[in-house]
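Can't paste images in this forum, so I'm doing it all in text. The chain is below; anyone willing to post the predicted C-alpha cells underneath?
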Amino acid sequence: MANEISWRDTATSETLYATVRNATNQYWDAVAGAFETLVPASWDDYDIVMTETPAGGYTYVATFPAGIITAGFYHVTVYKQAGGSPALTDDVLASGTTNWDGSAEDTLETISDQIDGTATPAQVKTNVQSGMTDQGYTTTRAPYLDELATANIPTDIDSLLTRLTALRAGYLDELGPTKVPADIDTLILRLTAARAILMDNLSNLDVAVSTRNATAPDNTGITANGVAIAALNDLSQSEAQTAASAALTAYDPPTKTEMDTATQAAKLASDGLDSVAITEPTGVASNFREMVVQVWRRWFGKSTLVKTTASTGTLKTYKADGVTEVTSQAVSDDGTTETQGEAS
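Text version of the structure:
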C-alpha cells in the first residue's frame, strides 16, 4: 500500500508535510523509527514529506510509515511549511484519524471482510474494542452515551432552563474575563493587610463579648450611684454660698495694702543702674543695654574721622583699648548737607 495520506489543497507547488501521533499523543520520529514524546527541537524529525501528484494537480500524498506495525487508531495532521525546514509554528491545514491494522489502513472493505466471515467473531470484537479504546471510549465513559438518549435530553434541557433563569445568567456574565480581574483588584485594594488582621480579631471579639455577658451586672451598686448623683444636684443657695466662702478663705488672696507694698518695693532703687553691665558691644548694638553703652563710647571713647576725599570720609569708633574697631560709618559733605550713614 502507498499514499494512504492524501490532501487536496487550494494551491499548487506548495511544500506540505504530515505528522503521525498515536493514542498517547506521541509523535512518530521518522529518523529514529519510533514514537516519542514531543521534543520541539526535534520537530524536523517528525515530518513525512508530501508530494504533489500529479505535478500541478493540487493533490498532495504521502505513505503511512511502514515502521508502525501496531494496529490501532492514529492521528494524522497536514502542515504547510513556511520556511526552509519544518517548524512547530507551521500552519495546520487538516487533521484526522486513520485505523491502521499494522500494515495497511482499515477501510470499509477490510472491515466488511472481517464481518462477513473472513475474520472470526473474536477477532472482530478485539479489533472493535481496540479501536474504541484508542479513541478514548472506555467502559466508564460508555454510560455517558446513554445520557444522550431521546428520553433524557429533553428532560435535562427543561431542568437546565428552569435552573438557569435570566437573572442567574446575568451572574455568569460577572465571571467574564473583563470583569473578574478588575473585581479582584478592587477587593485587594479594599482588603488591606491591616483590615485582614481586624477581621481575624472578630473571632476574639465574639469570645470576649460572650465572657462579659456571662457576668451579671451589679444592680445594687448602680442604684447606689444613682442616688449619690441625685444628691449632688440638690444644693440650696445657702449651701452654695457657704462653700464659695470657704473656698475663698482657703485661697487667702493678698489685701490691697499688701499689693501696694509689694508694688512700691519693685521700683528701681537709686543705685540700680550701677548694677547694669557696661561690657562693650563687639559691633552695632542689638539691645537697649548695648545701645546705652555704645552712645557713651561714641562721645567719650576714641573715634576717628578719616577723609578719603575733600567731601567723603569714614567715621570709626573703638573699644576701650583704642585699637580694636567696633563700628564704621561713611560720611559725606556736598557743601550743603553733611550725611552720616548707618553704622556697620
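The chain has four domains: 5-106, 111-146, 147-193, 276-340. The CA atoms of residues 150 and 156 lie 10 Å apart.
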